[in-house]
Amino acid sequence: MSGSNEGTELKVTRLAELPRSIEPGRDLWPNIESKIKEIQAAAPEVSGASVIPPRRHRARLSWLAAAAMVASVAVGVWIGRSVLPAAGRGAAGTLATKSPPGFEAATEATAFDAAYVSDPRYQRQRAALLRSLPARLAELPPESRAKVLASLATIRKAKQDLESALGKDPGNALLQELLVDTYQDEMRVLTDVHDASEPGRGI
Amino acid sequence: MAHAAVEDTRVDWEAALVQRACAGDARAFERLYREHAGRVYGLCLRMTRDAQLAEDCTQDTFINAWRALPKFETRSSLSTWLHRIAVNVSLAKRRKVSVSPVEPLPEDTEEVRPDEWALETPVEVQEIESAIGGLPDGARDALVLHALYGYSHGEAAQMLGIAEGTCKAQLHRARKLLRERLNVEVS
C-alpha cells in the first residue's frame, strides 16, 4: 500500500495500534477549495451575511467603515481585556419593545460581549443598530426578515461556542481571530439591514 | 481528566468551526479539513488500496461534507460523520473501477466475544498493512472499520450497508486469513 506513514519498521501487538491517520502525498485542499468556490458561486445564498444583495457604493463604504471600526475595536479588546472593567449588558437591554419573534434570541448579548467588548464606540454603534433593528426588520418582507434573524441566531451561536472554547483555551489565537470575524459578521448584517431598509433602497 | 479537558476544547472549537463553515466560511472549513484529512485519507487508502483513488475519495468526502454540512448535527461526532461519507465515497469509487463483486457470506449468528485483535507476537506495521491490503474487499472493510478505527459491529455494518451478522462473518473471515498470512495467532 503506497502512501503509508514512515516508521514501517515499527512493530505492533494490536491492530488498534496501527496509525489511523495517514497524510496524503500532496495537499488536497486547493482542489477542494476550488470546488467549494464553484459550489458557492452556483448557490450564493449560503452565507448568513450573503442574504443581503450587493449594496451600492455608499453602503459598501459604510460596511467597510464598520468593519474597520470592529477591527480596531478588536485590537483594543485583546489588549485591554485584562485591564478594562467589564461593560454592562447595555446593548440588548435597550431594545425597543416591538420586536419580531426570535429577535431577542438572535441578538441577545453573550457573556463574551459583556466581558470583553468594552470599547464605547463599538458599544454605541451596536446598541444603535440593535435599537433600530426591530423597526428595520418590520419593513422587510417576511422571507428576508426570517433570513436575517436566522443569520443573527447563527452568529450568536458561533459567538457562544467560541466563548466557551476560549474559556478553556484563552490564549488560542485562532479562536480569537474567529471571534473577531464573528463580530465583524454581526456588524455587517446589522449595517446591511440598516442600509437596506432606508427609503429608496430594497433588500 | 486533563485529556478530557483537551478533548472538550477540541470539540467546542470544532463546533464553532462547523458553525462558521455552515455560514459559508471556507477558511473555517479548511481548519476542519486539516484536522481530519489524515484520518479520512487513511480510511480511504485502506479501503481502496490505491493512493490516487484514495486522494480522489478524500477530496470527494470533503466536498460532499461541505454540501451536506447544514444537515450535520453538531452534537454528533464530526469524525464519525466524515468517516460515513468517506466509506460511501470509497465504496462507490471502488465499484466503478472494479468489476469483481463482493462475495456474499452467510451471516454469523454466533455470539462474538469482545475482540482485541491482539497479535500473539509483535509484527511489523508494513507486514500487517500488507496483509490487510491483501484481504478480500468485504473482509478488509469490516476489519478496518472495526479493528483499526474502533467502530462497533453495528456501526461498521451500518456504514457498509450490510447486516450486522454479515459484518461479523466478514470479521471472522478476516481473522482467519490474517492468521494464515501473518502466521501468528490473532485473538
- Backbone structural class of chain A: mainly alpha
Q: What proportion strand of chain A?
A: under 5%
Helical content band of chain A: 55-70%
* Main pleated sheet of chain B: none
Write up what this structure looks like.
The complex is a heterodimer of chains A (203) and B (187). The longest helix of chain A has 27 residues, at 142-168. With 203 residues, chain A is mainly alpha-helical. Chain A is 61% helix and 2% strand. Chain A has a domain at 101-198. In chain A, 33% of the residues are buried. The termini of chain A are far apart. Chain A is built from eight helices and one strand. Residues 1-8, 46-65 and 75-97 of chain A have low confidence and may be disordered. In chain A, helix 6 (120-138) packs across helix 8. In chain B, 70% of the residues lie in helices and 4% in strands. Chain B has helices at residues 2-22, 26-48, 51-68, 78-97, 125-133, 137-148, 153-160, 164-182, and one strand spanning 118-124. With 187 residues, chain B is mostly helical. The two termini of chain B are 31 Å apart. The chains are: A mainly alpha (203), B mainly alpha (187). Chains A and B meet through strand 1, helix 1, helix 7 and helix 8 of A and helix 1, helix 2, helix 3, strand 1 and helix 5 of B. Strand 1 (11-14) of chain A pairs antiparallel with strand 1 of chain B, so a sheet runs across the interface.
